[in-house]
Amino acid sequence: MKFTIQRDQLMESIQDVMKAISSRTTIPILTGMKVEATEQGVKLTGSDSDISIESFIPKEEDGIVYVENIQPGSIVLQAKYFPDIVRKLPQQTVELEVDDHLNVGIRSGSAEFNLNGQDAEEYPHLPQLQTEQSFEVPIDLLKDLIRQTVFAVSTSETRPILTGVNMMVENSELYFIATDSHRLASRKIPMQEQLQNLSFNNIVVPGKSLTELNKILDDSQETIEISVTENQILFRTQHLYFLSRLLDGNYPETSRLIPDQSKTIMHIDTKELLQSIDRAALLAKENRNSVVKLTTKADNHIEITSNSPEVGKVVEEVEAESLEGEELKISFSAKYMMDALKVIDTEKVNIQFTGAMRPFLIRPIDNDQILQLILPVRTY
Amino acid sequence: MKFTIQRDQLMESIQDVMKAISSRTTIPILTGMKVEATEQGVKLTGSDSDISIESFIPKEEDGIVYVENIQPGSIVLQAKYFPDIVRKLPQQTVELEVDDHLNVGIRSGSAEFNLNGQDAEEYPHLPQLQTEQSFEVPIDLLKDLIRQTVFAVSTSETRPILTGVNMMVENSELYFIATDSHRLASRKIPMQEQLQNLSFNNIVVPGKSLTELNKILDDSQETIEISVTENQILFRTQHLYFLSRLLDGNYPETSRLIPDQSKTIMHIDTKELLQSIDRAALLAKENRNSVVKLTTKADNHIEITSNSPEVGKVVEEVEAESLEGEELKISFSAKYMMDALKVIDTEKVNIQFTGAMRPFLIRPIDNDQILQLILPVRTY
């Protein structure tokens, strides 16, 4: 194998596939990165067997030449060293050459590295998914779907299914739903018409996979293809192939958790509320999910308070745009509330309470595409 | 006590004095920050008993009012909470008020914090140094003196004196010298004429103190006053008072370590050499101080190599501007070499070797104000 490649493109692909490579895998060859050259270009592969990522650098695209002098072949390189070496090479052009003894020469300017490679034949083959359950979504929308839900997955392995995000198609809408049983985050987007016969509801993607995918994808209005089989999901763009296993088990029915009536309704500035809760949370650093209290006051005002006997207390009044219904005193995790408010991009939010002991709902003020639910904390 | 203060100025002072506050001190009140209001302004104090820092915010300076409505008094606040609270306050103006029960009210906009304070009478008094051993240096030069030497102090407590930087006046020059016994870094600056009768040579300032001082000082051509007593050193600007203890013991005589002859002399581009050593060091990640080898070649060339049997090897040729004297093969710590080259700001360096087993010297090409010495590594 031999090729000459542009360093920046190589570096970008390396960074993408590194997201799947772990130094703590039980399969030694998976600590390496597979490099494969064909007449079409160079493909890098990384995998920790939960997630597999392939990134392709075409020989030429839009008239720009990225790879030259290709002699096809493949090799596995130690992922612990390869990325740093490429990052620090002195020139924009990098030559990579493998001899018959798996010695890999990496040359750039006057620098020459010789690394011990591993036989690419020993690297596991990635499954090529064949499925009719495929659809496309714009990349920036997929990134929103992930960002607005994935923070709410459970970090505990007590109920492993809750460490994933439930992907569901219902009434021509695609839902992402995550819950750790103390709060729930849901985001939906309309599906394209021709896909409205698509249907699945028990697809659960590990939160970690979606977090890594979100890091790799650049904001773009181009589309990404999503394909689903019984136990795997594939996200594919022109040069990226991101495969993740799905979680086993039945995702709980979450729609019943959402109250369909409310007793106190508040419209309020998202950022003002977020910042006042952030301040109130400061004194409760010791508690993992610092608890703050919200009390409705006269004239559309609410009061945010927090109390930590050893440190002190904080009181802040915030004026709501509107405040209707019953008076209310409710306590909740400042962290959960801040997580929810941070992913709502509208200037104002709509918060609906159904009493101090019932879950409450947070939505953007002018649409129902995002829904955040939080269970209050009992403080007496 | 009561005052109204501008948040940005308060925050800046808090960040400075926090550099002296440790949560792991054995004297509980030192986990707090002392706040003292006088008719002149507000003074903050932090100390871990090794380092003490005072920062003063004047009532008014250059026609700008920083503090208003002052009722003199003092209090100690928990340093774990106070900085975050001030950082997150909603408005530029902050009101601080202490009642007779040591309750501290902090108000800004509609946010109101009430913190439990501690009696300022219990806070230790900082010594006010009286000394005739005082002199001034420009702040940017002091920052250079620190930056170009402090990295070479020992991190091991085997010889505690080596964890400090030796400050010395000799032949009308001020020296900073640090060594961990494997390498030495020295920087000197000329003293102002009227101070040439000043003399001290066994002043050893803890490296940690100088590192913290360097973080606090902003680059500036204004001067800082340095005062030395037997066991303490004080750095003072208009609004900052930085006091550090000195290390006990005799600093070793280092001038004898410096070879006065050389057998191989090289002039070379600082950055090119630094980058090639950085690359060669990549394969030797496992060793704490990865060892690289330098070999002189024909036509003013040198070769930098490194070899790690399990990973591979790297070879790189670098062209020197000039290369005179005996042929040479020498091995040394890549980390020490990079540390030394990074603090030499000139485009070219002068490196003088006295054989493979003798320390070698690195200097800027056109002056001798910086001197870096490194002991080679025996590789056979």
TrEMBL record, chains A, B:
Residues 256-378 form the DNA polymerase III beta sliding clamp C-terminal domain. Residues 1-127 form the DNA polymerase III beta sliding clamp N-terminal domain. Residues 137-253 form the DNA polymerase III beta sliding clamp central domain. Coiled coil: none annotated. One of its GO terms (molecular function) is DNA-directed DNA polymerase activity. It is found in: Cytoplasm. Pfam families: DNA_pol3_beta (PF00712), DNA_pol3_beta_2 (PF02767), DNA_pol3_beta_3 (PF02768). GO terms for biological process: DNA strand elongation involved in DNA replication. GO terms for cellular component: cytoplasm; DNA polymerase III complex. Keywords: Cytoplasm, DNA replication, DNA-binding, DNA-directed DNA polymerase, Nucleotidyltransferase, Transferase. Forms a ring-shaped head-to-tail homodimer around DNA. Confers DNA tethering and processivity to DNA polymerases and other proteins. Acts as a clamp, forming a ring around DNA (a reaction catalyzed by the clamp-loading complex) which diffuses in an ATP-independent manner freely and bidirectionally along dsDNA. Initially characterized for its ability to contact the catalytic subunit of DNA polymerase III (Pol III), a complex, multichain enzyme responsible for most of the replicative synthesis in bacteria; Pol III exhibits 3'-5' exonuclease proofreading activity. Belongs to the beta sliding clamp family. PANTHER family: BETA SLIDING CLAMP, DNA POLYMERASE III SUBUNIT BETA. This is Beta sliding clamp.
